[in-house]
Amino acid sequence: MRAGSDGPPPVLLIAAVVLALTATGVMLAIAATRRTPQQPVTIAGVPAPQAQSPACHALLDALPQRLGDYTRAPAAQPAPPGTAAWRRDSEPVVLRCGLDRPPDFVVGSPIQVVDGVQWFEVTDPHAGDAGRSTWYTVDRPVYVALTLPPGSGPAPIQELSDLIGHTLAAVPIRPAPPSG
């Protein structure tokens, strides 16, 4: 040691700082890779007479782990057959396959085509502009419903349209006669 110097040698100080920074970096990396498991999504049961059909099984088997900003989430058990969910925050995106024709889908109903798939939108009249909307495929052998939370954007429908277009063959639409 040098005469008149107080404290540990500079090399020892540098090694201690490097060790502390490395330990902090490792802890941050571990914390970033650990995620709390997603809470299961409760999916309400609705009549879905074709939920066990080969078409629904093919679609469910092909579903992605991500839909835009949403990540696949487990369904709370017992989950209705023919269903799947994705979650970004608290509001999930829910898919149901094998449903009955939507009651409001009648001759003359507006249809939107997304990537070759024809969709019919049903909004919750009690929720106003901030409510969820449900979109039904109307040109496939089974009706598929996608319920979206407010602000979900177009990515979930676009990505599912591509998948549905490759998984389920198109069929002529089957609207109900207009009531009146």
Automatic annotation (TrEMBL):
InterPro entries: DUF3515 (IPR021903). Keywords: Membrane, Transmembrane, Transmembrane helix. The chain crosses the membrane at residues 12-32. It holds the Pfam family DUF3515. This is DUF3515 domain-containing protein.
